[in-house]
Amino acid sequence: MKFVMGQHVMPHIEQLIHEAQESILLISPFYWPGSRIKAGIQEALQRDIDTWMVTREKQWELLAGLEQLGLTRLTLHRLHAKIYASERAVFVSSMNLDRHAGSGSWDVGSLYTREDDGFDQIMTRVGELWRFIDSEARLRNRHPGRVPQLLHPYIGDALPALKRIHAQQATLEPGTRVGWDTIKRGAALSLTGTVEEVFHVRTKVDWDQSTAPKGNPLIEELYLL
């Protein structure tokens, strides 16, 4: 593991992009890159590197040009994490992909290569974060139907398709694992757990067979895990 700060942070992100051979994942709330970062991403796309970027919603239109070159772009409401990864390394930082970052700002970052003990642990956590990114993409009808190649060892090549439960179905059995998600005030909200747990969070009452008969509207909002 290597810890860097100040003017050394942005060059490490640039190097990670330049050295990628298979896949790149750039998670940054804000995207307003300098010429070197933008050129590096464009060059990676021209090399057919599987390149993904996750930003906040307000940055969506700024990525349209890169999407035409093959970038897969997604959003996550209230995103604050800054994580830059390839199949070779992952860089966890305080720095956005912003042209003003790195020019006098005091940012820090920790670089983990595949050989470092912490690499798999961090990538597993990125895989957990991806569930929320994937959920928001589904809710916004922007789901690409796949995940970044570099996350395949941690969550597979695709998250399980959501099996929606219809109100016409029979009452769910206690203990059934379900999920629920929605967008409220621009934020993607997601819950998973047993049907009793999710029902309680959603309704503030305990689950029993009498509270979830056939046709209960809540059942339409759930999906099987």
Task: Annotate the secondary structure layout.
Elements: E1 2-5, H1 9-19, E2 23-27, E3 31-32, H2 35-46, E4 50-55, H3 64-68, E5 72-75, E6 82-86, E7 89-93, E8 97-98, E9 108-113, H4 119-139, H5 152-155, E10 163-164, E11 177-184, E12 187-194, H6 195-203, H7 217-221, E13 222-224
Parallel strand pairs: 2-4, 3-8, 4-5
Antiparallel strand pairs: 1-9, 2-6, 6-7, 7-9, 10-13, 11-12, 11-13
Helix pairs in contact: 1-2
Compute the gyration radius: what is it?
Answer: 20 Å
Question: What is the count of helical runs?
Answer: 7
Average predicted confidence as pLDDT: 84
First CA to last CA: what distance? 36 Å
Q: How helix-rich are the residues, as a percent range?
A: 25-40%
| Most strands sheet | 7 strands, mixed
3D structure, described in words:
It is a single chain. This protein is 30% helix and 27% strand. The protein is an alpha+beta fold. Strands 1-9-7-6-2-4-5 form a 7-stranded mixed sheet, sandwiched between helices. A 4-stranded antiparallel sheet has the order 10-13-11-12. It has a two-stranded parallel ribbon with strand order 3-8.
Quick summary:
The protein is of the alpha+beta class and 225 residues long. The protein has helices at 9-19, 35-46, 64-68, 119-139, 152-155, 195-203, 217-221; strands at residues 2-5, 23-27, 31-32, 50-55, 72-75, 82-86, 89-93, 97-98, 108-113, 163-164, 177-184, 187-194, 222-224.
